[in-house]
Amino acid sequence: MYEKSRTVVRCAVGQTEEFNVEVGLHQGSALSPFLFAIVMDQLSEEVRQESPWTMMFADDTVICSESREQVEENLERWRFALERRGMKVSRSKTEYMCVNEREGSGTVRLQGEEVKKVQEFKYLGSTVQSNGECGKEVKKRVQAGWNGWRKVSGVLCDRKISARIKGKVYRTVVRPAMLYGLETVSLRKRQESELEVAELKMLS
């Protein structure tokens, strides 16, 4: 679809002349993700289950099952469905996480190859832990909040700027970064306190 693609580079003094795109992938196309979603929907139709048993976002897929045997069976079904149509399940990126201590001693295999076991994994930017805790995610969100705060500290620390403007900047830049995804998390009191303490420090 993108054969013989040409592009320009926009800079401070205008645009360069057109040149051929010879390296990398075409970026920024609104059509590409739409076509990819259509293809993945068709490829996974026979093996895909409803949420929460199968969760898909672009090429990231989470498969949930009640036993290790079901995980292996579903993983093999996905592998077969994709590979017979020319796609591959990345062995190096495939991981499994067990949330049941009684199930913690075994292994999951794909075509005889052991799948890497992890205690946590990231999905859509959030960290999911095998023990059901969310402490690491809260710490990561607090750090993201501080990163946002540093970007606008020139405004937030300027005494000449009104509190109303500072509040708008804080609510627009800092707070969304710190609370991203946490509306779906059951926080403990100490984790709520971590967020509150961080916010008080940022606003003081």
TrEMBL record:
Any GO MF annotation of the entry: RNA-DNA hybrid ribonuclease activity
Domain of life of the source: Eukaryota
Domain Reverse transcriptase span(s) in chain numbering: 1-128
EC number annotated for this UniProt entry: 3.1.26.4
Pfam family, one: RVT_1
Enzyme class: hydrolase
Assigned protein family: Belongs to the beta type-B retroviral polymerase family. HERV class-II K(HML-2) pol subfamily.
Protein name: ribonuclease H
